[in-house]
């Protein structure tokens, strides 16, 4: 057991790229909506505004989820894991969380080695 | 839209280290239990046995969750996200999912910049 695990200080363990993984679930249903990454700026912006911000690895910039679509994720609660390298956001989603238009990015089930949409 | 996003073929997008992120939630409550990583062997073992296997980045080896503690995660359903670089495991947990003894690794809430255990 360490202070990182047992303490009350928020001390995210950023990876080599300065990121932690962030998981967003629907605060009502528990459905896993999306998985993304945050750097220190994204975490600060999320805490300040109450709306989820992430670091886009593909675009190399900070983005507010829904900044163009309007499908923002309002953060109801934010939690951190034992070693402080992952965040759990319970959110109220203003629309589909996935860029494909699906409510969740996890719209396919793995069944017998293939994918089923249900 | 691409085949990766729309197709029925399981084609995980392994990162440079050969890994994808795997998120485990309690299949009854929706609680986020833990976040870990899988390589191709871990995914294959999980699909074959119905029990969650991961790749330990710190130990550099395949591990079955609960192999020593007995706290295995039985996979009820497995889903994959749009770009196939993240897995969602809905599980039936035989015991605490966190190595600290907590039911979930996310046992602390972020509140006003500090951590609260509740």
Automatic annotation (TrEMBL), chains A, B:
Binds 1 zinc ion per subunit. Zn(2+) binds at residues 82, 98, 105. GO terms for molecular function: phosphoribosyl-AMP cyclohydrolase activity. The keyword Amino-acid biosynthesis applies. Mg(2+) binds at residues 81, 83, 85. It is found in: Cytoplasm. Its EC number is 3.5.4.19. It catalyses: 1-(5-phospho-beta-D-ribosyl)-5'-AMP + H2O = 1-(5-phospho-beta-D-ribosyl)-5-[(5-phospho-beta-D-ribosylamino)methylideneamino]imidazole-4-carboxamide. Its cofactor is Zn(2+); Mg(2+). Residues 34-107 form the Phosphoribosyl-AMP cyclohydrolase domain. Its main location: cytoplasm. Pathway: Amino-acid biosynthesis; L-histidine biosynthesis; L-histidine from 5-phospho-alpha-D-ribose 1-diphosphate: step 3/9. Homodimer. Catalyzes the hydrolysis of the adenine ring of phosphoribosyl-AMP. This is Phosphoribosyl-AMP cyclohydrolase. It comes from Sphingomonas quercus.
């Amino acid at each position: 057991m360490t202070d990182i695990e047992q303490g009350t200080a928020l001390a995210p363990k950023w990876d080599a790229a300065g990121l932690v993984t962030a998981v967003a679930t629907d605060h009502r249903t528990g459905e896993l909506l999306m998985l993304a990454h945050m750097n220190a700026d994204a975490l600060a912006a999320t805490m300040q505004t109450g709306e989820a911000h992430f670091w886009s690895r593909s675009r190399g910039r900070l983005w507010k989820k829904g900044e163009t679509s309007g499908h923002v994720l309002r953060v109801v609660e934010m939690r951190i894991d034992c070693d402080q390298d992952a965040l759990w956001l319970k959110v109220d989603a203003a629309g589909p969380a996935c860029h494909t238009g699906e409510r969740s990015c996890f719209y396919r089930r793995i069944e017998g080695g293939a994918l089923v949409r249900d």
